[in-house]
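EI: anyone free to look at a 384-residue chain?
SC: sure, send it
EI:
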Amino acid sequence: MKKIYYLLALVVLAFTSCQKQPILPVGVNAPGSAYTKQLTITLASSDYKSLPNKVYPTTTLNFATIADAKLYIPTILNTKYPQLDDGSTASVSFALAAPAITLADSTNANTAYTLTNADYLLLPKNTFTDFSTAQILSWLPYKYPNPVNNQLAVLTYTYFESGATSNAGIPATDAFLYTNGAWQKIYRVSNAQYASVGRGVNNWFIATDVPSLVSYINTFLKADVVVMATAKTGDVKYVNYRYLTTNQKVIALTFDGSNWVNTATVATLAFGKSGGTWAPDNTVFYTMVQADFTIISTSTAGTAAARANIASFADFNTSASTDATYWSDADIQAGIAFLLKTKYGTTAVANQKFTITYAVYNFGVITNRTKTYQYDGTTFNFLQ
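SC: here you go
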C-alpha cells in the first residue's frame, strides 16, 4: 500500500508542477499584486453628471478652466475606478468651454488713460517718471483702489526696463485687466497688426470686421514668437482691441494646440493615483538651454575642464573617458541634480517628477537624451 500511496503522490506532484500558469488579460495584474492600469479616456456626459449635483459641470458637460478640470476630474476617476490601486495613471481628455468675459465698462473714455508726472509718484518710493512692467502692476492698486472684476485699464505711459530700453524710456500703450482678484497685463493689438488687415488709418476695428475678429487675432498671436514660445494646449489669452471711436474690448481665446479659438475645445491632462486618491500629474518636462549648462558649470560635478567646456558649448562631451572634458553618466546625473536644485529648489513639491532633456556630444554627433528625477522634499533623486 505504501508504494501505491507514494506513486499517487508523485503523480499529483508532477501534474501540478507541470501545469501552466493562466494567461491574464492585458491590464490585469497577477493575484496578490497591486491592481493598476494605465488608462486613456475621454469623459462622456455621464462622467460629468457623476459629480455632485450642485457643481456646474453636471449641466454644462464641460469645464470652464484647466484649474477646474484638475479639481473635478479626480472625483470622477475615484468614482469610476475605485478598484484601481496606487500607481495607476490616466490620460484624460475633456471638454474645455470657450472663455467668456464681460467688461465692467468698455467705453474708451473711461478705460483709456495717459499717465501724468503726478501719477508716477503715486507709487511709494518712486521718483522717476517712467515705469517698468513690474512697477506699473504695483502702481495700479494705488490708481484704482476699488476695482471690480474684469475692469480694463488701457494706459499710455513712459516704459523703462533696464537693459531693454534707453535711459529715457519709450512711449508705450498697454492694456491691463483686473480679474480673479489681481491686475494682469494682457495682449493688445498693435498699430502694425491693425494695418495688416487694412485698419491702419484709425487703428480700430469696425462692424464689418466682427465676423473675422477671431481669425485676425489668431493670426496675430500665432505670428508672435514670444506668445508661441510658451503656448500650450488649454492656455487662455486675453486680447484687448479698440472698436470704433468709443469702445475698448477684450476677447478671450484658448489655444487648442494649433490655433487660438473661442469655441469649446478638447484638452488633455495626466493624473496619477497615490495615497488612495487621484491627483493631477505635476511632472515637469524641461529641455536644457545654454544658461542651464552655465549653471552646472558652477557646480562640482565633473572635472574643471569639463565644466569649462559646457560653459562654452551647450552639451556634455561623452566621446571618450580619456578626454579632459569627458562627462560620465554619473557626472551628468550630478550636474542635472544641481541644476534642478538651483531652478526648482524653492518651488518643487514632494514626489514631483522632472524629466529633463539635454544634449550630448559624442564623436562629432550631437543628440538629445533624457533623465528623470523625483524630488523627495529635500533632494532631487535620479530615477532613470
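EI: The radius of gyration is 29 Å.
SC: 👍
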